[in-house]
Amino acid sequence: MTKTAALLLICLSGASSLRAQGLDSTTLAKPATDAWPTYAGDYTQRRHSSLTQIDTSNVHNLTLAWVRRLTAGAGGDDGNWFGPPPGPPAITGGVADQPVNMPGSTSGTPRLSGSVLQVNGILYVTSPDNAWAIDARDGHILWHYFWKSRGGTHIGNRGMAMYGDWVFFETPDDYLVSLDAKTGAERWHKEISDFSQQYFSTMAPVVVGNHVLVGTGDDLDSPGFLQSFDPNTGDLQWKLYTVPMEKGDPALATWGSLDAARHGGAQVWMPGSYDPESQAYIFGTGNPTPAYTGALRAPKDQHTNLYTGSVVAVNVNTGKLMWYYQTSPNDTHDWDATQAPVLVDGPFAGKPRKMVLQASRNGYFFVLDRTNGAHLLTGKYSEAANWAAGVNAAGQPVRDPAKDNTVAGALVSPDNGGATNWPPPAFDPQNGLLYVPLHEIYAMYYLTDKDPRMLVGLGGSEQDYVGGLGSSLVAIDYQTGKVAWKYRMGFGFGGSGLLTTASGLLFANDGAGSLVALGLQGRKPPVPLWHAQIGSVDNAPETYTVDGRQYVLVMGDGAVWAFFLQ
Amino acid sequence: MHSRRRFPFCGLLIVACVTSLSAQQAPAKTPPRPAPAAPVDRSGRTPDYPEHPPAPPEQVAHGQVLFRSNCSFCHGSDARGGEKGPNLVRDVVVLRDQNGETITPIVQNGIPAAGMPKFALSASDITDIAAWLHSQPLSDRGTPSALDILVGDAKKGAAYFSGPGRCTQCHSVTGDLAGIGGKYEPKMIQNLIVSGSNYGGRRRSAGAAAPKTQPVTVTVTLPSGQRFQGEIDHISAFIVALRDSNGTYRSFARHDSIPNVVVTIPFQWHLDMLPQWRDTDIHDLTAYLVTLK
């Protein structure tokens, strides 16, 4: 037995008794085929499926299996008179007597931008304050849970996590909620962050062994952290702050003061990856705060503001930091490093390596050794990115102060959304390429207040869009950091995440309302083979089999869309 | 921070297809659509977080007086941090406080370990101080700059305009740009210089509405040789739609390179300039154009 397998058994033994009805936890540690059991399908975040039923020769026959439109709020899912039977009434929970009224949460069209779990033929779907279980064969709604919210930033929800017969999701007003997957009945809810400090929670939790890993977000000056909860009781197992909170923390030397560090951000708002062999949960952290000035948090060159804008590895059992790599030292542009850390095993510089890849929001691409965080390579995948003057010996882009927010205005790319953002990339092991949605947009960055003390959170910056070179899909060769090809997708936000298959397909959002299947051609740009205009494509496409038949699932325009070969 | 880009992007469209025109891959421009109901900015919307109900003005004023005489020495006259004391506006104790209940014990007992002395202030006085603290704005996210952006040299700007900037190839200070300095605020002019279109600065710049600029047009040539031309409506790898000079809407399915599609962007030069600009030239040009009144 390999060391990996032994560790896995140890990790998973606690859950194995639960597998009869719910999720067999061993599915989490292998690439998904008949399930999509965790945020990215599996722990590597490669979003690469080994399924080949749908391929370049038959994808033109891909057709709609079913579509289910969802309605948010306690009164949702009434169905319509000519449609299928209406969904069941919503089960309500939440700590507010009366939910803060928000279209998209308490009523109307939900924002469906997260991952959908598919386990044993049941789909688990979320939007802010709402969760559904849906039959993967016909879209029939099994249950709908609605959380009465006390408010908070309702920007999105990235999906659920599953452990045995239990599902978990976060709410914008900072609760982790656990439901019985069979009935939608609430098991418990736990407060995960302080609402009065304007934390808001969107992350899809990640289950590893008997840990539910939970991050949260904040756009004010509050410290970031990652927490681990017991899936059974909801008790806190450990909490790792991503900025120094006490004197004596070695990272404090990278801050102007302890007060600045304790308000320094580094929010953990996207799911990480997991390496069973090293028991490392690898995740990205957000920008430092205040976002647009380093005057107080980073008055000197050595003030890089750890661990903001970093890829961080934590031991999943102890909650202890294992290593980190900072992709934007002393960031002044809101360059989160929360983009998916993609785990890849393969050759690098002639030797086999265990790596983590990240195409970061700042327009640069990084390859690290995931066993120790050692930097292997930096590439620049956005030609337009102009905020950095160069790359230092550690492979980190060095910011150009002239391209900060200035009173007179600086022409900067990327714009605030970044070269890429939360929409996940996909890795293609056959071609050794990481496919990434890229936006090359320019904005004039104006500083709005000369007194850095007045800049709180994301305040202090006016950013005016002044043009762009468009949106594309780029293929990054991880061994060289070079862009192998660039496929122009047009403009707008045309990136809601990607999916590749072993049959040479790349599923993407064309930015104009269509789900597209592109045929990969190795080092040559891909060609469009199939598309379906569904209004908008709001999450990353997924694929799995049900009853042995391969489906492609996507959400958009307030509905869940399932495609298969007719 | 989390991206709110999705909605902001909607406004920004056209500029995009830009370089794609000549490219083999079909450009895909997101069709213009009205802003969704979901908010774009934090400004002008219902707050996501409960705010402290406003206290009576006299209580707030009294709190400010007390703060200035007791607290500002360390925390700054605006409570946003001084030499010794931290910024209180964003402080967790203040954020959690409703009516002085969490602030009072700290003020009355001090924090000796952090060097904060105790103050002999009554609970009522501290409640007033809390009321003033809670009246201070937390973040100005989304608020446009009101600062004077003019730092450039108008003479250098004039030289750049007619010299290396090659602006005179398309523009004239006595023609299309005549009097522009009197029509728009400097920041709008600067954003227009860079964008070359009315998309620049449309989101946040205050002042007069941006001028109308020439629309993006498309010419579609069918295999038969029949040709259609008009203002672009939307375009992707799979469809192109236009409105011709009669206002008639026409759309054409696209398959590979059929029909032939040529997009014309009147501000193409400005897009090509984006990677090349020096900020000083932008600032100098702005300083020059604002003199054209």
Task: Outline the secondary-structure elements.
The complex is a heterodimer of chains A (566) and B (293).
Chain A: H1 3-12, E1 48-49, E2 62-69, E3 91-93, E4 117-119, E5 122-127, E6 130-135, E7 141-147, E8 161-163, E9 166-170, E10 175-180, E11 186-191, E12 199-200, E13 206-208, E14 211-215, E15 217-218, E16 225-229, E17 236-241, H2 258-262, E18 273-275, E19 280-284, E20 310-315, E21 321-326, E22 342-348, E23 351-359, E24 364-369, E25 375-380, E26 388-391, E27 397-399, E28 410-412, E29 426-428, E30 433-447, E31 461-477, E32 483-490, E33 499-501, E34 505-509, E35 514-521, E36 524-533, E37 542-546, E38 549-556, E39 559-565
Chain B: H1 6-10, H2 57-70, H3 72-75, H4 92-96, H5 103-109, H6 123-134, H7 154-162, H8 180-183, H9 186-195, E1 217-221, E2 227-235, E3 239-243, E4 249-253, E5 260-264, H10 268-273, H11 279-289
Antiparallel strand pairs in B: 1-2, 1-5, 2-3, 3-4
Describe the overall structure.
The complex is a heterodimer of chains A (566) and B (293). Chain A has 566 residues and is mainly beta. Chain A has two helices and 39 strands. In chain A, the strands form ten sheets. Chain A has a five-stranded mixed beta sheet with strand order 1-33-34-35-36, with no helix packed on it. In chain A, strands 3-7-6-5-4 form a five-stranded mixed beta sheet, with no helix packed on it. In chain A, strands 28, 29, 30, 31 and 32 form a five-stranded antiparallel beta sheet that branches. In chain A, a hairpin with a 5-residue loop joins strand 10 (175-180) and strand 11 (186-191). Residues 1-20 of chain A have low confidence and may be disordered. Chain B has 293 residues and is of the alpha+beta class. Among the domains of chain B are: 57-134, Orthogonal Bundle (Cytochrome Bc1 Complex, Chain D, domain 2), CATH 1.10.760; 217-264, SH3 type barrels (Roll). Chain B is 30% helix and 10% strand. Chain B contains eleven helices and five strands; from the N terminus they run αααααααααβββββαα. In chain B, strands 4-3-2-1-5 form a five-stranded antiparallel beta sheet, with no helix packed on it. In chain B, helix 2 crosses helix 6 and helix 9 packs across helix 11. Chain B is elongated, with a radius of gyration of 28 Å. At the A-B interface, strand 30, strand 31, strand 32 and strand 36 of A face helix 1, helix 4, helix 9 and helix 11 of B.
